[in-house]
Amino acid sequence: MNIHEYQGKSILKSYGVVVPNGKAAFSVEEAVAAAKELGTKVCVVKAQIHAGGRGKAGGVKVAKSIEEVKAYATEILGKTLVTHQTGPAGKVVNRLLIEEGCDIKKEYYLSFVIDRNTARVVMMGSEEGGMDIEAVADTMPEKIIKEYIDPLVGLASFQAKRMAFKMNFAPTVIGQVEKLMGALYRAFMAKDCSLAEINPLVVTNDDKVIALDAKLNFDDSALYRHPDVAELRDESEEDPKEHDAAKEGFSYVTLDGNVACMVNGAGLAMATVDIIKHYGGEPANFLDVGGDSSVEKIAKAFKIMLSDDQVKGIFVNIFGGINKCDVIAGGVVEAAKLVGLTVPVVVRLEGTNVKEGREILRKADVPEVILAESMEKGAQKIIELVAKQNAKLIG
Ligand code: GDP
Ligand code: MN
């Protein structure tokens, strides 16, 4: 789960990370009031969305007067920000962070993340902060310094010092940097984070070390231990389809293509996405209906898939184990009638009672539902039908 920058900063502050004074604002009036309360000469107006790259997209503005705060807040609130992390559709800004400005001497990068290869938390740092760290990793990988942390020992003081020196901090600020690293690590561990990223971490002209941005991601499986964090969820930032799916108990993942995949089981989901790709198609998503193939569940799954305009066809690929194929087939046919399909559906069934299941599909009087004899044929068929649909749209 993600949270907003201002929420992240408030958590980090409670662990001793130095952050600028600031306040969240949901309206222009609140933004102006927050700036007056801060009372600083310079204020920064920052768009709060669950994506980075706001600076380059015009979502971070430095204001030198209350009038400017008002003008920037008016401009940014309600605006759709398109950054390299939002995708082309962008994200609407509903919240702002009004923060005291700071006089930056240099920007750095600092993060903690889980490294699966070593099964350890790794601290990463770079003196090339501020800009997009992926580009640094690509073009100057030697500029990214890493320290792997022993889970029993925790972040050792020599590691923090070594990292700080390698990042070329001035000796006068090393103490502050080390303290901040320790505080960030404690927050990361205590809150079961999967990522804690400060970009930029800055040194100011009066030699203060401050976290100017904060991105915290949390391990969903550990959220039950942190009701205070779970409370910070902002549903408006999440994909409404993924939301609806979670409510129904489906695992659902949005992808970029146009073939929706309804499956049961995570392994079959991966195999289905792979085979669509193998035959030149592009999956729009996969939805794992799990063990329940009642008409209601399948109808709900169809509805979620059809609510995505990108979807031009659905591939149902189900293995009937405990779920029997005839029950699944009946469910698909009834659900198709109930929902009123607008795109073709190719169904591949295998497993218990497969003969009966296929018979039901063959006899079904729903022209959009087509039976496939195998997974390969099914994948090829749905790709062909989607291509035809696209040709029709263009023609
Ligand atoms: P991101 O682009 O979404 O990662 O947003 P950031 O919070 O990292 O802000 C982007 C950039 O805005 C930073 O790299 C800074 O250069 C600049 N910025 C942010 N806060 C301040 C501030 O208080 N003073 C000044 N002068 N610049 C700031
Ligand atoms: Mn940033």
TrEMBL record:
Q: Where does Mg(2+) bind?
A: 199, 213
Keywords from the named record: ATP-binding, Ligase, Magnesium, Metal-binding, Nucleotide-binding, Tricarboxylic acid cycle
**Free-text comment on the cofactor:** Binds 1 Mg(2+) ion per subunit.
Gene3D superfamilies reported in the protein's UniProt record: ATP-grasp fold, A domain, ATP-grasp fold, B domain, Succinyl-CoA synthetase domains
Q: Which GO terms describe its cellular component?
A: cytosol; succinate-CoA ligase complex
Q: Which Pfam families match?
A: ATP-grasp_2, Ligase_CoA
**GO biological process: any one?**
tricarboxylic acid cycle
Q: EC number(s)?
A: 6.2.1.5
Ranges that cross the membrane: none
Query: Which cofactors does the annotated protein need, by name?
Result: Mg(2+)
Can you name one GO molecular function term for this protein? Answer: magnesium ion binding
Q: Which reaction does it catalyse?
A: GTP + succinate + CoA = succinyl-CoA + GDP + phosphate; succinate + ATP + CoA = succinyl-CoA + ADP + phosphate
Q: In which pathway does it act?
A: Carbohydrate metabolism; tricarboxylic acid cycle; succinate from succinyl-CoA (ligase route): step 1/1
Binding sites annotated in the UniProt record for ATP: 46, 53-55, 99, 102, 107
Enzyme class comes to ligase
Chain ranges of the ATP-grasp domain? 9-227
Function in brief: Succinyl-CoA synthetase functions in the citric acid cycle (TCA), coupling the hydrolysis of succinyl-CoA to the synthesis of either ATP or GTP and thus represents the only step of substrate-level phosphorylation in the TCA. The beta subunit provides nucleotide specificity of the enzyme and binds the substrate succinate, while the binding sites for coenzyme A and phosphate are found in the alpha subunit.
Complex formation:
Heterotetramer of two alpha and two beta subunits.
**Member of which family?**
Belongs to the succinate/malate CoA ligase beta subunit family.
What this protein is called in its record is Succinate--CoA ligase [ADP-forming] subunit beta
Q: Which organism is it from?
A: Propionispira arboris
